[in-house]
């Protein structure tokens, strides 16, 4: 199976508060997001945190008050997010309590092209195929 990798870097200036975090809009093209991998480089010492949002809803980690943070870690989260539009917008949001250094997170999205996902594992594809077979169009 072909998987396309999309990589984004969220760099957060020093002294960026949770109350006024930095935001970076990103776009993922049509496909199925299978996994998100976040790298927290050495040196963070848990002073910086990030979230992935869809609109204003926090989708990673779960819960508005929760943040991803750590030091020298790789965090993997298995997703199944169908993107049927040309592209979908997500927002990377971050804070940094460090008084001396900016900190960055590397965020990777592994995406399977929509046309390569077998219909039996894709609910929206199954629904469309049933409608097509019943003559209800797309």
Largest sheet: 6 strands, antiparallel
Instruction: Count the E strands.
Output: 6
The CATH class: Mainly Beta
Give the N-to-C terminal Cα separation.
Answer: 26 Å
| Radius of gyration computed on alpha carbons | 18 Å
Please give the count of helices. 1
How are helices and strands ordered from N to C?
EEEEEEH
Tell me the domain tally: 1
Strand arrangement across the biggest beta sheet: 1-6-2-5-3-4
Query: Roughly what fraction of the amino acids lie in strands?
Result: over 45%
The CATH architecture category equals: Sandwich
Overall pLDDT, averaged?
90
Structural class: mainly beta
CATH topology grouping = Jelly Rolls
The poorly predicted ranges are none
Q: Tell the overall outline.
A: elongated
Helix content: under 10%
Layout: helices, strands, pairs:
Elements (H helix, E strand, L loop, with lengths): L3 E9 L9 E19 L7 E7 L2 E4 L12 E24 L6 E10 L10 H11 L5
Concise summary:
With 138 residues, the chain is mainly β. The chain is 8% helix and 53% strand.
Salient structural properties:
6 strands; Jelly Rolls; 53% strand; 6-stranded antiparallel β-sheet; mainly beta
Walkthrough of the structure:
The protein is mainly β and 138 residues long. The chain has a single domain (4-133), classed as Jelly Rolls, CATH 2.60.120. It has one helix spanning 123-133; strands at residues 4-12, 22-40, 48-54, 57-60, 73-96, 103-112. The two termini are 26 Å apart. The model has no long low-confidence stretch (mean pLDDT 90).
């Amino acid at each position: 199976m072909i998987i396309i990798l999309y990589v984004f870097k969220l760099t957060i200036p020093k002294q960026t508060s949770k109350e006024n975090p930095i935001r970076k809009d990103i776009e993922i093209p049509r496909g199925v997001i299978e996994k998100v991998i976040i790298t927290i480089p050495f040196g963070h010492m848990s002073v910086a945190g990030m979230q992935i949002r869809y609109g204003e809803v926090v989708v990673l980690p779960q819960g508005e008050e929760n943040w991803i943070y750590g030091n020298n870690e790789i965090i993997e989260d298995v997703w199944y997010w169908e993107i049927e539009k040309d592209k979908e917008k997500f927002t990377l949001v971050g804070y940094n309590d460090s008084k001396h250094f900016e900190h960055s997170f590397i965020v990777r999205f592994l995406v399977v092209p929509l046309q390569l996902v077998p219909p039996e594992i894709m609910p929206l594809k199954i629904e469309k195929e049933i409608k097509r077979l019943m003559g209800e169009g797309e």
